[in-house]
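Hey,
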Amino acid sequence: MKLYYSPGACSLSPHIALREAGLPFTLEKVDTKTGRTESGADYASVNPKGYVPALELEDGAVLTEGAVIAQYVADLAPEAGLAAQPGNFERTRLQEVMNYIASELHKAFTPLFLPATSEDGKLAAKAQLARKLAYVESLLADGRSYILGERFTVADGYLFTVANWSGHVDVPLEAFPKLRAFLARIGARETVQSAMRAEGLIQ
């Protein structure tokens, strides 16, 4: 398998999942501004949506959308326990959290990355984002180690990836001590460190 990624983007989530699953894969960096991959290919020929991630399978099929790729990876290695098996309530709960991160938290950051967003627009986006982060904080308020309990799942890799963007867009996390502790805990995992090192995010 080949994962197309951009350093620190949402593609870090399936990257972490692949390492947690212990599956063989290669990486190809994408310059989303030029639309070219590290090897010089036109990324639109891989993923016409133009954004990362994309996972190219051995038979040439391509999966897109990070939340979907992460769950697909989890199902390829059920022994890793990255997701409950399809068809039970725990899996539905995982999908609920993954969808929230994708549709609410992830998208709430978008205006803060766009140069055209006005200062008033950024203030409004930060206020909205704070409300969504407060909800995440409430999920961690019972002292659980991970977002769904006491076992690492692909939801944790996705939340870690997205919530870490706060440092790049001047969104303070002082009001969310449980989330800050969560980010430190996930960031210390060997697989997460390996993924971030491979993307050039840490030394």
